[in-house]
Specification:
By secondary structure, the chain is an alpha+beta fold. Helix 27 packs across helix 28. 43% of the residues lie in helices and 12% in strands. The longest helix has 31 residues. It has 4 domains: 250 residues, 2-Layer Sandwich (Nucleotidyltransferase, domain 5), CATH 3.30.420; 195 residues, Alpha-Beta Plaits, CATH 3.30.70.370; 225 residues, no CATH class; 149 residues, Orthogonal Bundle (DNA polymerase, domain 1), CATH 1.10.150. It binds a DNA duplex through helix 14, helix 20, strand 15, helix 26 and helix 27. One of its GO terms (molecular function) is 3'-5' exonuclease activity. Keywords: DNA replication. This is DNA-directed DNA polymerase family A palm domain-containing protein. It comes from Apatococcus fuscideae.
DNA sequence: GTAGCTAGCGCC
DNA sequence: AAAGGGCGCTAGCTAC
């Protein structure tokens, strides 16, 4: 084996290879040093020798570097603050020799930073490689730099000299790898080295296959399901060690070879850049994807890792308070709904109100499946719930773990639901999403208010229901949810009566349940209950997606007192369009505006105690501006040039009667002065619905939405929707032309390009008609827009990231949310920094002015929290 | 007990 | 025949 095993000492385990490779861990067995093994001095000396050799002879070479990592659950935990490096592997080509004179040549380096039994051994060896890792002049190639970078930082090592990330290179070349064709080292080397057995060896076997062990069963035999033991255990296991070193050292070699082959592929592809952008960035004809990588994505890779490292400070006290309030609100809403439900379906006392299946059962029992009319939602369905109260059934001695209960519809046992599903899931069952429930319940709060205003003593009618013994089981969980005598519901109403009730509902803002329950108190109660159910779900989402996980320690690092505070998501270039995505946690989907009812964004704060604040800056209408630019749409360009409310201008261009009103001075497009009132109404108030339609169209059309879809959204006829769409295009013929050209492009060549010439492959666009083709053709018109917006954001961030003055002032990028960036820095220089940030964003391409046909407008705020910056 | 699916929903 | 692009995450449920 042409490997130099360098040295020894520290705890340890495993490396994720990026994207989801499941690696469960088998129970840890105690480690014992094999007899006769000596580690320590010798390994450290060898490490020093090799590090010295690199510094003296191989400093100008590019090294592929890889690590194995222990003590981390890569599915849940951020590598910032979690994980220890067990070994390093290095490779810089075959024409080197790390061996001592007289030894066989050694070209692959494998460095044991774990040691055999003494943590100090490994730490000492790692220390010998600090200079190499931190030397900015030695360029390093990584496969998923982010992970290794953060874990090395857990040892106090800050790698520098970032040269390339083979994952980003592979993404740039082809963003559509899926399933087994992933971006893992195994998969990529397997594909790019077809037929080369020396490189391919790894593509066939995963770490789990090689080192996995069946968990021991009770009888002492190995089970069938393989589990990966902790990496430190494998690495120290005398029987596995050699195989492990072989495996792990190969990663660096594979990364190196992959880099070479990907670079060649990228160099072989000339890209089409938007001409003014090419001019601004000095990108000459013949510019290749490799040039693109070097100019944009390589430095971007480094920047993203710095952002991840910086992390966002989170105010956990604020979240804890939000949690208490949210839980109280949710409890109230849940009870309100569940009392109503269990009055009609006794078993509903046991139900889980956040279960889609159970809600479907209550509201839609007995209805047909839209895809397969021979299937119906059973009249009664059994569910289980945890037996938390330890209820013991009659004749039994022990409490069962679960209580089984059967739900029928709220209209009574064996009664088919009178509701017509207005929306179905892809599998054909009635959807119970918020829009559906909302249409059943009516306007938020309306029914409940009406209920409280009823003249008789039945204000708290739901609370007054007579309790009865439930023959079906216990209701110890919450006595307030005890079953009640189901009120009689008269379902035998005439169509005339129904029509009257429906009109009454429409007039008052009640939902469809009002008529379905025969109106009156019963109808109002049903609406109010489902209204409450909507609230339960909304609060549930806020709690389980945001408020709770943000308080965990999996994604946080700790402050000097050891208190978790900064949150480090991972920022990935892993989308089809070139947008970023954020994971663990996803900080790009935190609730905003009115959805943020517990002010989660207030928890994202600057380090105020240390004199910091935030700058939040975002592009206004970035995608629409880029559409105007690439399509060279006169009307849109003009509208942006004139400024003001873009959607109002769109409405103005679409409807003659609005134009008339404006021309006659009956209405104003906008009013700048906030201190005074406009003399006549504003367009956005006078023609609210027209403006709303224009706004929806502005967004939808870029996504390729059809008249059919719009008709559903607007709840209008297909003809009317078609007419609206035609109106939109009538004012913007260039957009239609451009979209057709893009579709044609995709159909003919199988790809489309963004502003800077990134390509998205769309092979399905070249196939004959199918569902997949439809999707590809919509992507063909959306990707150049969404992808170009991503290009602009990338270029702007690079400009911000390398701005010398911003650095001097101490400003750091923390997060990007597609068209928005967040920075943190010292309060006293906030205004100066803000100007710079805005300038970088408005002139993202090498700082050149007026590159695009349309100006890029940026609005920004300085505030201590994300919430306040909006 | 876990894996994979379905449904739903947060953001731009 | 379907009918708006791009993401990540959670929960419930079923099948293994």
């Amino acid at each position: 084996m042409e490997q130099s095993t360098v040295a020894a000492a520290q705890p340890a385990l495993q490396e994720e290879e990026l994207e989801e490779q499941e690696q469960e861990q088998a129970p840890r067995t105690p480690y014992r040093t094999p007899p006769g093994t000596t580690f320590g001095q010798r390994e450290r000396q060898e490490a020093a020798r090799v590090a010295q050799l690199i510094a003296s002879q191989y400093q100008s070479r590019w090294f592929a570097v890889d690590t194995e990592v222990s003590d981390i659950d890569v599915k849940k935990e951020s590598p910032c603050g979690h994980g220890r490096v067990t070994c390093l592997s290095l490779y810089c080509g075959d024409n080197v020799n790390f061996a001592l004179p007289g030894e066989a040549p050694k070209r692959q380096l494998w460095v044991d930073t774990l040691g055999m039994d003494d943590e100090e051994e490994g730490a000492a060896v790692m220390e010998e490689f600090r200079v190499f890792l931190e030397d900015p002049s030695i360029r390093k190639i990584w496969h998923n730099y982010s992970f290794d970078r953060h874990v090395l930082a857990n040892h106090g090592i800050v790698p520098r000299g970032f040269g390339a990330d083979t994952i980003h290179m592979a993404r740039l070349l082809d963003s559509s790898r899926r399933g087994t064709k992933s971006y893992s080292l195994e998969s990529l080397t397997g594909d790019y080295f077809k037929g080369d057995s020396t490189i391919q060896q790894r593509s066939k076997t995963s770490m789990k296959e090689l080192f996995g062990k069946g968990a021991l069963k009770k009888d002492g035999t190995e089970g069938k399901v393989k589990k990966l033991p902790p990496i430190d255990e494998i690495q120290r296991d005398p029987e596995q060690r050699e195989k492990f070193i072989d495996y792990s050292a190969f990663d660096a070699k594979a990364t190196f070879k992959l880099y070479e082959v990907l670079r060649e592929h990228l160099q072989g592809r000339v890209c089409q850049i938007n001409p003014p952008v090419a001019l601004a960035c000095n990108m000459r004809p013949g510019w290749t994807m490799w040039d693109l990588y070097e100019k944009f994505w390589q430095p971007f890779g480094g920047l993203l890792v710095d952002m991840e490292r910086a992390g966002m400070l989170v105010d956990r006290d604020h979240l804890a308070a939000a949690q208490i309030q949210a839980e109280a609100d949710q409890q109230e809403a849940r009870r309100f709904f569940q009392r109503w439900a269990s009055a009609r379906v006794p078993a509903a006392q046991h139900m889980n109100v956040t279960s889609v299946a159970q809600i479907q059962q209550l509201l839609f029992a007995g209805v047909q499946n839209a895809k397969d009319p021979t299937c119906i939602l059973e009249p009664g369905r059994k569910f289980k719930t945890a037996n938390v109260d330890g209820f013991i059934e009659e004749g039994k001695k022990l409490a069962r773990k679960h209580i089984e209960f059967e739900l029928h519809g709220v209209w009574g046992p064996n009664k088919k639901s009178p509701l017509k599903p207005e929306q179905v899931t892809p599998t054909g069952w009635p959807a119970v999403s918020v829009p559906v429930l909302r249409s059943l319940a009516g306007k938020p709060g309306t029914a409940r208010k009406a209920l409280s205003e009823l003249p008789d003593s039945s204000i708290s009618s739901v609370d007054d229901i007579d309790l009865v013994e439930d023959p079906e089981g216990p209701w110890l969980n919450d006595p307030e949810l005890a079953p009640a005598k189901a009120p009689m519901v008269n379902l035998e109403v005439t169509t005339a009566e129904t029509a009257k009730l429906e009109a009454e509902a429409a007039e008052n803002g009640y939902g469809k349940l009002y008529a379905a329950f025969g109106g009156g108190k019963d109808g109002l109660e049903a609406c109010a209950a489902v209204d409450a159910l909507c609230n339960v779900g909304a609060i549930d989402t806020l709690l389980s997606n945001f408020i709770l996980p943000l308080q965990g320690s999996e994604v946080a690092t700790r402050d000097v007192q050891g208190k978790p505070n900064r949150i480090h998501c991972s920022l990935n270039i892993n989308t089809e369009t070139g947008r970023l995505s954020a994971r663990r946690p996803n900080l790009q989907n935190q609730p905003a505006m009115e959805k943020d009812r517990y002010k989660v964004r207030k928890a994202f704060t600057a380090d105020i105690a240390n004199g910091n604040t935030l700058i939040v800056a975002d592009y206004s209408q970035l995608e629409l501006r880029l559409l105007a630019h690439v399509a060279e749409c006169k009307s849109m360009l003009e509208a942006f040039k004139l400024g003001g409310d873009f959607h109002s201008r769109t409405a103005l261009g679409m409807y003659d009667h609005i134009k008339e009103a404006i021309d006659q001075g009956k209405c104003l497009l906008e009013w700048e002065d906030p201190t005074s009132k406009p003399p006549v109404p504003l367009l956005k108030d006078m023609f609210k619905s027209e403006r709303q339609k224009a706004k929806v169209l502005n967004f939808s059309i870029a996504y390729g939405k059809t008249a059919h879809g719009l008709a559903q959204d607007f709840k209008t006829s297909l003809d009317e929707a078609k007419q609206t769409v035609e109106r939109w295009y009538a004012d913007r013929p260039e957009v239609l032309k451009w979209q057709q050209a893009q579709r044609m492009n995709a159909t003919k060549h199988g790809f489309v390009s963004t502003l800077i010439g990134r390509q998205r492959q769309l092979p399905d666009a070249m196939t004959s008609s199918s569902k997949a083709k439809g999707h590809a053709l919509r992507a063909a018109i959306n990707t150049p827009i969404q992808g170009s917006a991503a290009d602009v954001a990338t270029a702007a961030m690079l400009a911000i990231g390398r701005h010398q003055r911003l650095r001097e002032l101490g400003w750091t990028l923390l997060l990007q949310v597609h068209d928005e960036v967040i920075l943190e820095g010292p309060k006293e220089s906030a205004e100066e920094a803000q100007k710079i940030v805005v300038d970088c964003m408005e002139n993202p391409f090498d700082g050149k002015r007026d590159v695009l046909e349309v100006a890029l407008e940026v609005s920004s705020n300085i505030a201590d929290t994300w919430y306040e910056a909006k």
